[in-house]
Design brief:
Layout: H1 2-35, H2 37-48, E1 73-77, H3 81-86, H4 88-97, E2 102-107, H5 110-120, E3 125-128, H6 134-144, E4 148-152, H7 158-167, E5 171-176, H8 180-187, H9 190-199, E6 202-205, H10 208-216, E7 222-224, H11 236-249, E8 254-261, H12 265-273, E9 281-287, H13 293-302, E10 307-309, E11 322-324, H14 331-336, E12 340-343, H15 356-360, E13 365-367, H16 375-384, E14 387-389, H17 393-405, H18 407-421, H19 427-448
Parallel strand pairs: 1-2, 1-4, 2-3, 4-5, 5-6, 6-7, 8-9, 8-12, 9-11, 10-11, 12-13, 13-14
Helix pairs in contact: 4-19, 6-7, 7-9, 12-17, 16-18
Length: about 450
Amino acid sequence: MFFLSSARNDITILDTIKTLEPYRMIFIYSLALWLLLPYIFLHLLWRARKQPEYLRHIGERFGFYSIKSGKPIIWLHAVSVGETRASQSLVTRLRETYPDHQILITHTTPTGRTTSEQLYGDSVLRAYLPYDFPFAVRKFLLHFRPQLGILMETEIWFNLIHFCHGLGIPLLLLNARMSERSAQGYGRFAKLTLNALGELTAIAAQSADDAVRLTSLGAQNILIMGNLKFDIKPPYAMLELGKQLREQFGVTRKVLLAASTREGEEVLLLDALKNILIPDLLLVIVPRHPQRFADIANLLEQRDILFQRRSNNHAVSDEIQVVLGDSMGEMFAYYAASDIAFIGGSLLPFGGQNLIEACLVGTPALVGPYTHNFAEATRLAVSAGAAIQVTDASGLATLAQRLFQDSKTLLGMRQQCAQFIEPNLGATSKSLQLIQQHLINSTIKHSSNP
């Protein structure tokens, strides 16, 4: 009997240890965050050198907010520009479906916040999501008391998820993507990741590959709903602006757009394009990050390349070789004004950017070898004939030359853009159904626990 009792006690102790293990890991993780606190302030100061906006609303990054709402809140977190744009169709539907609720959109970057202002004005609340310190996360959740939370794409914040779970706030990971590289990164913190994924209310993955990688990390409640980016409707104002830009660029010129370029890619493009002949070519460079506008202007000046800033808003003369897209929130207009779009972040190992926006306005896309952040969308676009993938900048320049010389092939690619978009619509409606299901449950809990 003694041995049986001892064995039962041992099992109880082991069960207790297993139960406490996630809390121990959360504690270690939170302690590491406190040790990084000085670096956080240095990081903000460093980023503020080129973007002073990083020094605004600092209190929000630590859970201090002045804005409030008298309505029940649906909260959506969109880190930066890409996630904010991706959620546009969903936010529109949420506002239509729940007029008695207030939409709160949180961001991490000033550019994401600015994009939200451009898209929604004062019709939504917006703030920075606090850093993942326990005190800051708790203050955020208790201040706004959201009835439901939505994280976009690849946002796994351990304390945030843990506190939502503890407070009974349904938290969904929507439009979820998980690249092989990201999966390896989260895999280094396997126990924390497993616990966080288990505490999410539901996960809606973009593709089967994303679902497989999430499952390998321990996620179980996964649905495959497609990519919200396909459901975005280009704003009429941007399409009209695109027509105006095309007039400024020159309707007879060949316009190659380098969209959302990252550091180092502009040099590769300029070197490659100078080795080929494309008569009347106009290269439009739109850097991904606005703090790099001045750097690209300096690069063009150093190379004695005649260029004009988009902000000048003047007609582009025949002598101008490059237009520097130094504006925010006009990417649809740039795509609509161009013949071909190179999608930045793909010539160097940044993982690529969203090529769906180009295809939504019928502009064929060229992408480099590094597309792991948008692997499924790239595969589908290439398969549909709406995009072509190249191995390097030289291949990109050669391909652009061939397409500009072959109007029939270029026209065919433009037509195939619709064939790429059409079969992939519907993620917004599926996501809304999932939100409705869990928002109803949340409302019941809130009403029974005033």
